[in-house]
Amino acid sequence: MPLGTYEDHLQPVRGDELLDRVLGWLSFACALPVFGLALYRLADPAEGEPTWVQPLRVALILLALIGIFACTRSSIRFFKLALILFTARLVGACVLYPWSGGPRFSGSEIAFDLVVIGYCLLRLKGLSPSEL
What we know:
The protein is mainly alpha-helical. The chain has one domain (13-131). Helix content is 70%, strand content 0%. The chain has four helices and no strands. It is elongated and about 70 Å long.
């Protein structure tokens, strides 16, 4: 490339980091409307469900947002944090299963947590300790 062009000033991004960022921010953008809906349901709970269900659902979605943001950082310590957060989310999703509106919604939530946990484990295996 000729000197003085725009491309000379760009820093190359590794493919795995680019994938972390693109998929992470896409997941983050998709989780924001779900968070808004959970806040609405917190203010207007459904009949017959316990009072702790909606606050727990909001907390689990906040854990997901923090975990997704951690995945976009592409470092070992942030992937470990995301792994812990999504494991906690998986336990919480199993607790909320009876009040989640059936297996279709709860199943997709549990499947998302399992996919992210698997992705974090693969990325932790692929990252070397020198990439802190």
